[in-house]
Amino acid sequence: MKVVALVSGGKDSCYAMMKCVRYGHEIVALANLMPADDLVDELDSYMYQTVGHQIIVGYAECMGLPLFRRRIQGSARHQNFSYRTTVGDEVEDMFVLLSEVKRQMPDVSAVSSGAIASDYQRLRVESVCSRLGLVSLAYLWKQDQSLLLQEMITNGIVAITVKVAALGLDPAKHLGKEIAFLKSHLHKLKELYGVNVCGEGGEYETLTLDCPLFVNARIVLDEFQIVLHSSNSIAPVGIIHPSAFHLEKKEEFITNDKSNDVRGEIMGSVFEVQGECPQSETSTAEITDLDGVMQNSICISKSYINTFSICCWLQNTCKTAGGLDEDLNIVLRQIESQLAGYGLSWKHVLYIHLYIADMNDFTRANEIYVKYITQEKCPSGVPSRSTVELPLLQAGLGKAYVEVLVANEQSKNVLHVQSISSWAPSCIGPYSQATLHKGILHMAGQLGLDPPTMTLCKGGSTAEMEQALENCEAVATCFDCSISTSAILFAVYCSSSIPLSERQEIQDKHNSVVNRMRLLQPEKPNKCGDPIFLYVLVPALPKSAFVEVKPLLFVPKDVELANGTVQNPSPSVAASCWGFQQESWHDSCLQKCVVSGTLCAVLLSITNENLATICSESVSADKNDEGHQNSIQKGHVEKVSKFCIYLLDRVITDNGFSWEDTVNLRVYLPTSLNTTVETLSVMYKIAFNELAEIGQRVRTGTELIVNVVPVLGAGRAAASMDDVITCELLAQK
């Protein structure tokens, strides 16, 4: 990509440019924000370093690139964590600056910044980039600061301190010194006082005088004055005010042939960007008129009252033949309406499963999606998301199917990094890496993407699995946890393009990577026992990936977990309802992850062998029926459905939970079962109604509490994703 680099003069923004070049991007312009008054060295800014701004003009000639500069007119008016367009805020100056760069150089598609640890700054750069249709590149984000400082020095960053403001840094001793000279002292201060060795806590600021990207000249600071801002005896604050400098030409430098490039006319030029900041910003979304849609073609499923799921898909697709556009608009509009009916909106949504019938429509699906779910509608953070292709048309459904997880309050903590970095894959758009709510971390589906390049790693399905897990771990680390010790469940979507011979290798790789992570962190206790493993076979994944990993983690905060067993659990009534008796083999169908008094996760797998046992009398009589190998009779499916409810009811009641604690109940329906989503949904609805009549622990009504998801296959093992029925349940107190 062609990149405009935000430069403050500091080491971080310069090294970020070097990283961009290393990953194949081209720096084509520089952008800088400076004080309105040339005599002012430092502003009270939350966003911009301005000490040493008098020198930045020389960067244009040093690099042979155009430099766009703007005088800061705004101030930090919007100081909340996430930024919203605010008249008079200093962020709007960046918007005007980058707008002008884009106007003069329309081929610019990305912005580089030197953010390392500041969410405040990163989120504001991302906000501006989102408004301008630019990609944020932040290759220093979340990198280890000690290693990063050494990298900068090793790779030729020559930078001096121009501000010090920390215990152990003396303006008289440490201003004007090169970072290579101060490195050992900074590490000593880190050990003594916990300072950030790269200065991310404001301990010091730097000015880069030379680096490998300064191909034409280096900067020589001839004269400067030390200005004390505070003479505090513990942590005095001082800055350097440059008085005079010159450029020292380099004897040998690289020249790029720009004779046929219009940019050649402005190479090395400096432009001051004028203009007023925008006064307001409005956006409109073109929403399909749904008044003519037949209501009986829309199916809604909803679970219970606190944290719950809403699911919407289309039935009778011949009545909605408008393709993905119409189907997805209908589904999202219906979910929006359902939310409004409960006095909620998109800001209450924690997680979204976006299922589409054709992954070739992925780009178009995103374009429609962003008309409904936006940063403005979700000020506390946009939902996390997983997107996969499902055999929707084969199951007799429309081209879009959406499931949302909703909380009736807004205590969520959202991690949304849109910048491309070396940390983990970016989420460019209104979907986040992870959402933490009531101790459960709902993580977006992770592909085996190499974070800095955002391309699938090479090496096939096992390599993608390892990289996807590494990406999951990077996200988990931001919440002070690990997928190796906090995982409740791993849902792994496997593309049907994976050869059968490789499927077991995927599971082996999954186990080995998680075990390795656990050994590397012996100090982290296992918070919820062994995790549940679910493998789902789907037609395709984004970017033609082989695997997508979707972990669910338990991240308690200041909670003293209960130990031991539940006292006097309520007996299950499902057995008396349908005549099932507890058998020893039942436990072989189950994977459980239970945190007493907090959460209960269950995966129930019904194999062909289990089916034969459950329906032993009728199955044996039907084995000679023609076509038996390709389908299972409706009566058998109905009996299996009731058995699933019976066994799930037993597990949740034995562990002190009820159906009203259900967050979601997802039933994976393989296409090989030759049963429609509608038919299976009705079976579960009838089963729950019968259970309610007997036990009065399940509320009846027109809404289901089951999300039936059509798949090619599912199971607890990657090598055998051929369960007859797979149920995934999560209950939470």
UniProtKB/TrEMBL annotation:
Pfam family, one: Diphthami_syn_2
InterPro entries in the record: Diphthami_syn_dom, DPH6/MJ0570, Rossmann-like_a/b/a_fold, RutC-like_sf, YjgF/YER057c/UK114
Diphthamide synthase domain: residues covered: 1-233
Record-level GO BP terms: protein histidyl modification to diphthamide
Enzyme class: ligase
Top-level taxon: Eukaryota
Catalysis performed (reactions): diphthine-[translation elongation factor 2] + NH4(+) + ATP = diphthamide-[translation elongation factor 2] + AMP + diphosphate + H(+)
Protein name: Diphthine--ammonia ligase
Organism annotation: Rhizophora mucronata
